[in-house]
Amino acid sequence: MDCLLDNGAEAQPSLLQSLNTSRLLQLPIEIRLQIFYHLFGPSSSSSSTPRLIIRKASDIVPPICLVNHQVHIEALPIYIQSRILVPTNIDVLPTLTILMDGIPENKGFESIRKLNLNHFALPPTHAVKAMHFITLCSKLEDLTLTLDCREFTHPLERASITNLFHLDTIIPLPYLRTLRIDIDTSPEPLPPDPLQHLPMMRNMQRTKIVRDGVVVEKRRSRSMRAYTFYKGNDTVEGQVREWFKDRFREVGRDVEVLGDGV
């Protein structure tokens, strides 16, 4: 038994020593970072930034970051920085926050440069959670956001939307250069019968008739209805974008504010 204990006691330091003497970890940190940049950095053959779809927080971690803790905290920020983060649901943000908090010197959040929250429409009930995560990304450059206003049965004014979703928290982001924002609204309801409740219009139809070599113009009235086509109103969406532009100009910022389709 003593022999087994002694062997086990000797094996553990030996394992730790082999990890600590890894060739990668023996390199200076500057060289290791260059390796990670070469591995994860933008490709010279492609001008588009790859999208990282995040269904759960672990989707953000590449396999090499599982080697050990030191590689994790050095390589993960470089991996994230060169990608557009696309969470698929609001519930992944708290776990993602914990993961980013685990990287020292705030390098986790600082590495998030492009964030796309357009995979789901953000309801007002989760606005605080989303805005908290957004403001933690202190070097965020590109943000895409869709606000979910479908639960409201009446049209919302611009001020109501900016207050409900706490949109003023986006303004102080110092590195933000592009903001794409859309509002998801339900279309205005159609009447039960589109032909009802519409005003009647009288239209004079002209018919030319030739009688005894003389052209006679005959007029007869024709009843028709004025059709109105109902669609979702995007006026408030435009007002919200203009509000953002004005607010950014007030603080001397040149931020491009667009719709997601632009």
What this model shows, in words?
It contains nine helices and eight strands. The protein has 262 residues and is α/β, with parallel strands linked by helices. The chain has a six-stranded parallel sheet, with helices on one face. A two-stranded antiparallel ribbon has the order 6-7. Helix content is 36%, strand content 22%. The chain has helices at residues 2-20, 23-26, 29-40, 69-81, 92-101, 107-110, 127-136, 158-164, 235-250, and strands spanning 51-54, 84-87, 114-122, 142-148, 178-184, 200-211, 214-225, 256-258. This is F-box domain-containing protein.
Secondary structure elements and pairings:
Blueprint: H1 2-20, H2 23-26, H3 29-40, E1 51-54, H4 69-81, E2 84-87, H5 92-101, H6 107-110, E3 114-122, H7 127-136, E4 142-148, H8 158-164, E5 178-184, E6 200-211, E7 214-225, H9 235-250, E8 256-258
Parallel strand pairs: 1-2, 2-3, 3-4, 4-5, 5-8
Antiparallel strand pairs: 6-7
Helix pairs in contact: 3-4, 8-9
Short structural description:
The chain has 262 residues and is α/β, with parallel strands linked by helices. The chain has helices at residues 2-20, 23-26, 29-40, 69-81, 92-101, 107-110, 127-136, 158-164, 235-250; strands spanning 51-54, 84-87, 114-122, 142-148, 178-184, 200-211, 214-225, 256-258.
Largest sheet: 6 strands, parallel
Mean pLDDT score: 79
Q: Please mark out the parts with pLDDT under 50 across 5 or more consecutive residues, or reply none.
A: 1-19, 200-204, 215-233
Content of β-strand: 15-25%
Main sheet: strand order: 1-2-3-4-5-8
Using the CA coordinates, give the radius of gyration: 30 Å
The topology string of helices and strands comes to HHHEHEHHEHEHEEEHE
Q: How many E-type strands?
A: 8
- Structural domains: how many: 2
Q: Report the end-to-end length measured between terminal Cα atoms.
A: 73 Å
Shape assignment = elongated
Class from secondary-structure proportions? alpha/beta
- Number of H- or I-type helical stretches: 9
Which oligomeric state applies?
A: single chain
Fraction of helical residues: 25-40%
